């Protein structure tokens, strides 16, 4: 698994208060959970991993590459799935959106078609391939967002509250898909049961990393904080 | 209405035409209709649009949606032209617009955005192609946002107010644009 290293990272947006303060941590486990209240800094933390946010102080490295100057290389390794799939879906139809991420890989059209067909089959979206993406249900949109990232074969997948907008059935579906992924997964969530079976969980509170533990202990710490 | 500008799968002869041919035909009809102001030309453009619509075998549901939107614009423009320049000019202007909207609807409904994107990339750059694709996708997104804003107003018992409608729509559109930009970067389109 890739090694993600945060060294003395502090960050604030503009003149506002620090959203992350003095975070130092190394991540290499297969399944890592991130929990914390709203505004605790967890989303900023994961955005830093693929360079969407570059820290004002400190460094973030993925397999030795710094996000400050090698973000493009890092983004080929680190996929990102957002809370709201509507923000992530770029192309008008389902198949086109899955194919969109592959444009940057400079692979042949035949391979693009094969990879798109395979991932749509895996995620049960094959019948919806030509449907306008915005007409899908919330669960289908989140599956599409996930498929569009996974098809590019990243080594790390960051999921920022992917089940927040979903009902119970779709939450289970996404959870099942996440469980089957053979890559490093970093999951930000308020749905604490999703962390069952995870290797490690970080707890953020007011911009600080306050616990770094097994999910059971981390959940206890988080509950005590709120 | 939000699927007005998106591809509708099909196997019709119009679907099978190359994207370049369709876009070129649309451009030729557009320029000819606007530059050469003749009623017979407007009639020919309308006939061509009707033929293309029939040949494309688009779902009736989509056509009804398309024309509900188009008729408002065409009707207002035609009415204004009738009052100011008479029926011949109204037919020419509103009929020409109707023909072009219908043809544009047929082209966008029978051509995958990827094909349009490839065409744009061949003619200019990938950046232009992606911008076009995002433009097409944004029509649906902004329409959905507008519908949500209006629904929220109605739920709060408010009548129509342009400011109360426009402000949240602009704010949400900008927020959506920010999210989309972030997603594009995350998906590796960061140059």
Automatic annotation (TrEMBL), chain A:
Domain of life, source organism: Bacteria
One GO molecular-function entry: ATP hydrolysis activity
Keyword set, alphabetical order: ATP-binding, Nucleotide-binding, Transport
SMART domains: AAA (SM00382)
CDD domains per the UniProt record, alphabetical: ABC_cobalt_CbiO_domain1
ABC transporter domain span: 4-226
This protein's record includes keyword Nucleus: no
InterPro entries in the record: AAA+_ATPase (IPR003593), ABC_transporter-like_ATP-bd (IPR003439), ABC_transporter-like_CS (IPR017871), ABC_transpr_CbiO/EcfA_su (IPR015856), ECF_ABC_transporter_ATP-bd (IPR050095), P-loop_NTPase (IPR027417)
Any Pfam family matching the protein: ABC_tran
GO cellular component: ATP-binding cassette (ABC) transporter complex
UniProt keyword annotation of Translocase present: no
Family the UniProt entry places it in: Belongs to the ABC transporter superfamily.
Name listed for the protein in its UniProt record: ABC transporter ATP-binding protein
TrEMBL record, chain B:
GO annotation, cellular component aspect: plasma membrane
Keywords attached to this entry: Membrane, Transmembrane, Transmembrane helix
Mode of membrane association: Multi-pass membrane protein
Entry-linked InterPro entries: ABC/ECF_trnsptr_transmembrane
Subcellular location: Membrane
Species per Swiss-Prot/TrEMBL record: Kribbella antibiotica
Pfam families: CbiQ
Protein name, entry field: Energy-coupling factor transporter transmembrane protein EcfT
Sequence intervals crossing the membrane: 40-58, 67-84, 90-109
């Amino acid at each position: 698994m890739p090694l993600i290293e945060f060294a003395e990272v502090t960050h604030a947006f503009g003149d506002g208060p620090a959203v992350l303060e003095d975070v130092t941590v190394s991540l290499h486990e297969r399944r890592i959970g991130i929990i914390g209240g709203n505004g605790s800094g967890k989303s900023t933390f994961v955005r830093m991993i693929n360079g969407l946010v570059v820290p004002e102080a400190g460094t973030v490295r993925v397999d030795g590459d710094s996000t400050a100057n090698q973000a493009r290389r890092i983004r080929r390794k680190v996929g990102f799935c957002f809370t709201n799939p509507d923000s992530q879906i770029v192309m008008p139809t389902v198949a086109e959106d899955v194919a969109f991420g592959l444009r940057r890989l400079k692979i042949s059209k035949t391979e693009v078609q094969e990879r798109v067909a395979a991932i749509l089959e895996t995620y049960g979206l094959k019948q919806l391939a030509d449907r306008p993406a915005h007409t899908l249900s919330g669960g289908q949109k989140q599956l599409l967002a996930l498929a569009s990232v996974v098809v590019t074969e990243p080594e790390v997948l960051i999921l920022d509250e992917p089940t927040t907008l979903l009902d119970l059935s779709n939450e289970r579906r996404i959870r099942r898909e996440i469980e089957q992924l053979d890559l490093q997964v970093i999951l930000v969530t308020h749905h604490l049961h999703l962390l069952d079976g995870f290797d490690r969980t970080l707890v953020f509170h007011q911009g600080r990393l306050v616990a770094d533990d097994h999910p059971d202990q981390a959940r206890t710490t988080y509950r005590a904080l709120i | 209405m939000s699927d007005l500008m998106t591809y509708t799968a099909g196997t019709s002869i119009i679907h099978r035409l190359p994207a370049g041919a369709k876009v070129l035909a649309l451009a030729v009809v557009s320029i000819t209709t606007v530059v050469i102001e003749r009623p017979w030309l407007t009639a020919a453009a309308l006939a061509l649009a009707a033929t293309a619509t029939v040949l494309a075998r688009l779902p009736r549901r989509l056509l009804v949606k398309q024309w509900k939107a188009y008729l408002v614009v065409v009707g207002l423009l035609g009415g204004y032209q009738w009052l100011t320049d008479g029926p011949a000019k109204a037919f020419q202007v509103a009929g020409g617009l109707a023909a072009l909207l219908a043809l544009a609807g047929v082209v966008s409904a029978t051509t995958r955005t990827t094909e349009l994107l490839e065409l744009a990339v061949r003619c200019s750059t990938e950046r232009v192609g992606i911008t076009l694709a995002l433009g097409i996708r944004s029509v649906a997104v902004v329409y959905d946002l507008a519908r949500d804003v209006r629904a929220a107003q109605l739920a709060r018992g408010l009548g129509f107010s342009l400011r109360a409608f426009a402000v949240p729509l602009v704010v949400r559109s900008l927020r959506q644009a920010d999210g989309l930009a972030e997603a594009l970067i995350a998906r590796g389109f960061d140059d």
